[in-house]
Structures are given as C-alpha cells and as structure tokens.
C-alpha cells in the first residue's frame, strides 16, 4: 500500500513523497472524462486554468432566452426583458468562515454558495437571470482525492460544481461566467443577477405600523445542523436518517424563489428580507429600513425539528423569507408547498422603546440582534 504525501507544488509540478522514502515529481497536466460524454470532469492530475474553465463551460452550458452569450468570451451578453429592472447581489464564502473543508461536503459548499445569492434574489421577488462565480482554490482541491481503497474519487472542485449546478438547474439559473484562481484558502464569490418588473421589487423599507410579520418554512434548522456537525458524539447517537435530516437545512438550504415571486405578483407583502443573518438581526435590518418597530411572539415561532428557541431567534443561514403583510390581507397557509407562519406584528417606532421586542409568557423584552455579525 502506498502512503503519498503532497510535499509542494512548484514550477508547474507536484512533488509527492511516496511511503516517506521516495519523492516523485509529476507535471501538472489535465485529462478529463468529459470528452467521452461523462457529466462530470475528472482531473487525474491538477488541471490548468484553461482546462478547468473548459470543463466548467461544458457542464454549465444551458439554453436561456436571457443569455445571448455565456462563458467563453470577454463578457457574457445578457438580454434584458422590456420593462424589467436588474436585481444584483454578491456573496463571498470563505473556508473557515462560511464553511469548513474538513466538515462540509463539497456538494454542500457548492449548493450553499449559490443558495446565498438566490435567496437574495427571492427576497426581492425577482427571477434569477444568471450567476457569475469567482472561485479561488488550493491546487490539491482540483485533483482526485485518494480513497481508503487507494482508488481515485472525484476532485473536490468537481463535487463543488455537482452541488452548485444541481441547484442552478432546479432554479433555471445559467452559470454565465466567472473567474478562477489558485489560492492558499478556498473561497467562492457568487454574483447573481435577477429580473423584476420595474418598480415592483419587494424592499425592506415598506413595512407600516399595523402590518403582520410572517416567515416561510421553519427557523433554527441550519444552526441546529451546524451544532450537530460540531458535536460528533451527539451526532453519532442519532440514527443515520435522523442525522441526515437534521443536517440538511444547514448543508442544503432552499432559497424561496417561488414564494418571493408569489408575494410580489399578488402585491401581498409591504416589505421583505431573507433570513441569512438570523431572525433577530434581519428583523432589525427590516425595522431600520422601514423606520418601524416590531414584536415577535415566541409561542408562534415555527421552530425546526431539533432546534432550540435561541437557534430560531439568532441562528443564521435559514434562508427563509421574513415579510410584512397588511392585517386585512388573508394569507394562505402555504405557498408552493412551503408553510407560511405569522410570528408577530409591526408597530410605530418610538425613541424610548426598543426597535424589536420578544413576547414570551406575557412579558415583552427587547430582542437584541444576536445573529451573524460580520467582522467579529
Ligand atoms: Mg439578503
């Protein structure tokens, strides 16, 4: 049996230490199974940038009336539909901050990278038009990982695109361009473009006193999944099916595009935001933008299976929609199969009272923004 250790990557070559005795140098060239019709590129050695781009281009190719020209030229060319505005958002995911190479499956990292952008598009009630991805990867993530049986498996980068492109296909979002770079730390920056009829986008700033507060889906599932990931002992006690179910909201959050589109088309919501940083923090953002206050009723919160009240209030990355609706509007129980829950109400803002409060056991207390904070 061989034990192979990567010694260094230098001058276009990999130096590998074999069984701690022998050092082999392998030039960095590329071969791909794409030519034989396989759906996934398999890099037997580290690919060059051009080969990697070519493989991604083949996989990302999909017809869309919005794209005149996708990957392969200096710019993509998009067609803007008459009467539409462009909604644009960008999200950076970095190893050690937004995901961990050691614990997150590559497919989940790819899925989450795109889901973050799509969720912002959903919060505006827009439809996705195109995604652009800048990807920085250490070279070892582009070559097959040796498995325990000494057989090659797909490179991390291929599995990353498996996850990203599966979600892109589900939401008819073409990957229309991007950039690649060899880096010491893995990072993925996604740009999403959405189209929305002029003047109709859902904004954070339209909530009015008297409106009711609603959320889609359940809350705290992603934080509960992350807690499980960080506690292997607790995780091992759960049956495999339960463990997978509990991890799914963290690994594979579902952007609520159909729900955002429904709210905008029917003019139901006065304001909306997606829950990326946690309910307590994102509700503060919405109240700040609308210059209102809000009260959340703890007893009404749709807490995800296995999650705590704390995780539902402050855990980020649920990617559900939080929105406000005038009280005279009767809301459906579900939109496109996803439950809708009233969780509180909007009130007038007063300097002396907190912007956001939590009602529990008949007492109302300030609800501080204790969700995800950037730069801490
Ligand atoms: Mg957002």
Describe the structure.
This protein is an alpha+beta fold and 376 residues long. The chain folds into two domains: 64-197, PurM-like, N-terminal domain (60s Ribosomal Protein L30, Chain: A); 204-366, Phosphoribosyl-aminoimidazole Synthetase, Chain A, domain 2. The chain is 26% helix and 30% strand. The protein has helices at residues 49-60, 106-123, 156-170, 221-229, 232-237, 240-251, 257-265, 279-290, 309-314; strands at residues 4-10, 13-18, 22-27, 67-69, 77-78, 84-94, 127-137, 144-146, 152-155, 175-182, 187-197, 212-216, 271-274, 292-297, 321-325, 334-335, 338-348, 356-360, 363-366. Strands 12, 13, 14, 15, 16, 17, 18 and 19 form an eight-stranded mixed β-sheet that branches. The chain has a four-stranded mixed β-sheet with strand order 6-11-7-10. Helix 2 (106-123) runs parallel beside helix 3 (156-170), helix 2 (106-123) runs parallel beside helix 7 and helix 4 crosses helix 6 (240-251). It binds magnesium ion (MG). Residues 120, 123, 274, 276 line the site of magnesium ion (MG).
The CATH architecture of the largest domain can be given as Alpha-Beta Complex
Give the helix tally.
9
Bin the strand percentage: 25-35%
Helix content: 25-40%
Radius of gyration: 23 Å
Number of structural domains: 2
CATH topology of the largest domain: Phosphoribosyl-aminoimidazole Synthetase, Chain A, domain 2
Judging from the principal axes of the Cα atoms, what is the shape? globular
Query: How many E-type strands?
Result: 19
Q: What is the makeup of the main sheet?
A: 8 strands, mixed
Helix-strand pattern: EEEHEEEHEEEHEEEHHHHEHEHEEEEE
Helix/strand-derived category reads: alpha+beta
- Unreliable stretches, pLDDT < 50, 5 or more residues? 1-44
Q: Residue-averaged pLDDT, rounded?
A: 86
CATH homologous superfamily label of the largest domain? PurM-like C-terminal domain
Catalogue the ligands.
Answer: magnesium ion
CATH class of the largest domain: Alpha Beta
CA distance, first residue to last residue: 46 Å
């Amino acid at each position: 049996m061989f034990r192979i250790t990567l010694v260094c990557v230098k001058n276009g070559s990999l130096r590998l230490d074999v069984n701690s005795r022998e050092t082999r140098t392998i030039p960095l060239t590329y071969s791909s199974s794409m030519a034989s019709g396989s759906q996934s590129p398999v890099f037997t050695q580290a690919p060059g940038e051009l080969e990697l781009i070519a493989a991604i281009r083949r996989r990302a190719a999909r017809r869309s009336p919005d794209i005149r020209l996708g990957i392969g030229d200096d710019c993509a060319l998009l067609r803007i539909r008459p009467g539409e505005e462009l909604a644009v958002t960008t999200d950076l995911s970095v190893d050690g901050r937004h995901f961990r190479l050691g614990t997150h499956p590559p497919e989940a990292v790819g899925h989450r990278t795109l889901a973050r952008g799509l969720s912002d598009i959903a919060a505006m009630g827009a439809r996705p038009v195109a995604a652009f991805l800048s990807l920085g990867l250490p070279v070892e993530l582009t070559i097959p990982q040796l498995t325990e049986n000494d057989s090659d498996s797909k490179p991390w980068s291929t599995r990353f695109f498996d996850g990203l492109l599966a979600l892109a296909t589900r939401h008819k979002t073409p990957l229309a361009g991007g950039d690649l770079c060899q880096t010491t730390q893995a990072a993925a920056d996604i740009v999403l473009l959405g189209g929305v009829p002029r003047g109709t986008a859902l904004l954070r700033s339209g909530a009015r006193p008297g409106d009711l507060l609603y959320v889609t889906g359940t809350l705290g599932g992603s934080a509960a999944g992350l807690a499980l990931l960080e506690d292997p002992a607790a995780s091992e006690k759960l049956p495999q099916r339960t463990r997978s179910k509990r991890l799914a909201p963290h690994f594979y959050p579902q952007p609520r595009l159909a729900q955002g589109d429904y709210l905008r088309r029917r003019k139901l919501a006065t304001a909306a935001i997606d829950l990326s940083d946690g309910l307590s923090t994102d509700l503060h953002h919405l109240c700040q933008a609308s210059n209102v206050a809000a009260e959340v009723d703890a007893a009404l919160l749709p807490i995800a299976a296995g999650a705590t009240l704390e995780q539902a209030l402050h855990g980020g990355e649920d990617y559900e929609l939080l929105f406000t609706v005038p009280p005279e509007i009767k809301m459906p129980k579900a939109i496109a199969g996803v439950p809708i829950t009233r969780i509180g109400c909007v009130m007038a803002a007063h300097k002396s009272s907190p912007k956001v409060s939590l009602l529990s056991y008949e007492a109302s207390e300030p609800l501080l923004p204790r969700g995800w904070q950037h730069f801490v």
